[in-house]
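Email to the structure team, subject: Response regulator model.

Hi all, the expression group asked for a predicted structure before they design truncation constructs. Nothing fancy, just the tokens so they can compare against earlier work. One-line instruction: predict Response regulator, return tokens.
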Amino acid sequence: MSLGQQLAPHLPFLRRYARALTGSQSHGDTYVRATLEAIVDAPEQFPRDVDPRLGLYRTFQAIWSSTNFDGEGPVTEGQQHETIAQARLAQITPLSRQALLLTSMEGFTTEDAAYLIDSDTEEVDTLVAEALAEIERQTRADVLIIEDEPIIAMDIETIVRDLGHDVTGVAVTRDEAVALAKARRPGLVLADIQLADDSSGIDAVKDILREFSVPVIFITAFPERLLTGERPEPTFLITKPFQRSTVKAAIAQALFFDQATVPA
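Reply from the structure team: attached below.
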């Protein structure tokens, strides 16, 4: 199997990581393209002593760590972040965000994350704790949950409240979600895609975003249906079944960047 074939299944998830790290699909994709170009230009330098996914993320990390948000390096588009994100970025180190996302959202072990960021496991644990503490200190929100499975909805609600946020309501259909959002404007939306009456969580979010801007996290058992690269993609996407740490990391990052993204 060629290197390209080995890496292909992991690219959608690297793009997810890059978007969450930068808060922008175009900005994140620019880093991913630079990563692939580096591999094509020098395939002999690709790490062969580790799993292909680790090697891919390791190459990405090298590209990321060699650039800054001031525009240096290979990034040529999508470099402007929301003002609120810029202010928060100044208060938390990029390395801490990487450690948090790699372990909580991408599912790497502490040992793998240490390898990816050229650190050790103790420092990774410290970085993750620091990132969570700082982001949670900066962000508090009213959260609307759009989820038709009662047990999952209860689990998400518990996670949200444990993080110190309030829940404005739990909707199980598109119409109910829009009504709840209009009745009490949320600061964050957690949305399933397939709802109880066969309506779409994506359509519900589009309706809400026509009324006001709000950051959105989508939840689905089939992330590949949204990670196609053929249309605007959600910046924050959680795969079912999910880990609590994944939801916590996504909420923290979504509120950190405080921007709305929904597929067209």
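The CA atoms of residues 110 and 121 lie 6 Å apart. The chain has three domains: 1-81, 82-138, 140-257. Ping us if the truncation boundaries need rechecking.
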